[in-house]
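Page 37, continued from 36.
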């Protein structure tokens, strides 16, 4: 899992517009690599601010939120790259490859000086954990990730020490007198 600061550093140090857009989109919606690669231009609904994932894992469709930051980046990206069918296409058209995205992530994490073991999938894992840390109900996270079973989501969103530190004991709300008797 990557911290929010680490994700921010990875994305900000990724200078190539296409590469930056890919990494931010994966993180912003918790996409699986295959979902990103299968994303078509028509799946981005900028009016409803939603991303339509068609036939994700388990052959299920679902809708995800479209981040305002991602939309701005997608608009810049679209003007420069002019994709025809898929949001991200190879240099000769057609679908972008998983290896290309993995190489982008590997280069970006090295540039950011992050030594921990991380893969493209770490962005999805971080998305879920960061939502949980911010107080998002785990059932919403389950829906966003496209998990059938809550147990799968719970594995993803292991309770971090950061979350535990944010919890205040009910005893801290009491007005206790500390007079010596």
């Amino acid at each position: 899992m990557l911290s929010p600061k680490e994700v921010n550093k990875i994305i900000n140090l990724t200078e190539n517009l296409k590469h930056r857009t890919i990494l931010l989109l994966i993180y912003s919606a918790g996409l699986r690599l295959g979902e990103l690669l299968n994303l078509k231009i028509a799946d981005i609904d900028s009016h409803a601010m939603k991303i339509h994932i068609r036939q994700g894992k388990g052959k299920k469709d679902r809708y995800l939120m479209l981040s305002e930051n991602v939309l701005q980046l997608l608009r810049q990206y679209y003007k420069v790259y002019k994709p025809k069918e898929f949001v991200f296409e190879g240099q000769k058209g057609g679908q972008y490859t998983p290896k290309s995205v993995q190489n982008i992530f590997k280069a970006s994490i090295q540039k950011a000086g992050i030594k921990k073991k991380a893969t493209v999938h770490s962005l999805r894992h971080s998305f879920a954990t960061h939502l949980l840390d911010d107080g998002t109900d785990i059932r919403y996270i389950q829906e966003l990730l496209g998990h059938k079973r809550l147990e799968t989501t719970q594995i993803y969103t292991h309770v971090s020490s950061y979350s535990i530190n944010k919890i205040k004991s009910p005893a801290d709300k009491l007005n206790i007198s500390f007079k010596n008797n």
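The radius of gyration is 19 Å. Flag for discussion at group meeting. The mean pLDDT is 88.
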